[in-house]
Amino acid sequence: MSFTIRIAQPSELDTCARVIRESFGTVAAEFHLTAQNCPTNGAFTRRAHLLDYCKNGTQLFLLCTDDGPAGVVQLGRNRAGSFEMKKMSVLPRYRHCGYGGALLQFVRDKTAAQGGNRITIGIIAENHRLKAWYKAHGFVSTGCGAFPHLPFTVEWMTLSI
């Protein structure tokens, strides 16, 4: 199936929020995350959250197939040469079709084009399947941290460009 990845338009923020919620919803269910114990998880993303991210300089990209929206990724500059990738989302029915890898390659290319030398992410450390996927794509673990407001451990990972 053919697809395109492009910057999301302001009129598409509701669509992006829906894609993120549905994508992260499977993880929220698996790890028992709720709006009460983890309100910042993607499963609870709303248009207003995405609007705030965009106002703060991050870019939101939408992956569309012939059938419609299938994925979203957010990219923002951290500090000199470092970019942070957030809300990497592929709708469950489109998983295992290469769209996650395509979004990641897109982010790599965008980061390099903007003079970046690394991409950082934070994931649920206990999500071993996701961690293995990122490692298979070249990410390395740079540390873990527990936060009292989160019901899981955060693992930070970095990909050198």
Question: What does it look like?
Answer:
With 161 residues, this protein is α+β, with helices and mostly antiparallel strands. The protein has helices at residues 13-30, 47-55, 99-113, 128-136; strands at residues 3-7, 59-65, 68-77, 82-90, 118-124, 140-146, 153-160. Strands 1-2-3-4-5-7-6 form a 7-stranded mixed beta sheet, sandwiched between helices. The chain is globular and about 40 Å long.
- Strand percentage: 25-35%
| Contiguous helical run count | 4
- In which range does the helix fraction lie? 25-40%
The counted number of beta strands is 7
Report the uncertain regions.
Answer: none
Numbering strands along the chain, what is their spatial order in the largest sheet? 1-2-3-4-5-7-6
Main sheet overview? 7 strands, mixed
What is the molecular shape? globular
Mean pLDDT, all residues: 95
Tell me the structural class: alpha+beta
Q: Rg to the nearest angstrom? A: 15 Å
End-to-end gap: 28 Å
- What is the H/E string? EHHEEEHEHEE
Keywords:
about 160 residues, alpha+beta, seven-stranded mixed β-sheet, 4 helices, globular
Task: Set down the secondary structure blueprint.
Elements: E1 3-7, H1 13-30, H2 47-55, E2 59-65, E3 68-77, E4 82-90, H3 99-113, E5 118-124, H4 128-136, E6 140-146, E7 153-160
Parallel strand pairs: 4-5
Antiparallel strand pairs: 1-2, 2-3, 3-4, 5-7, 6-7
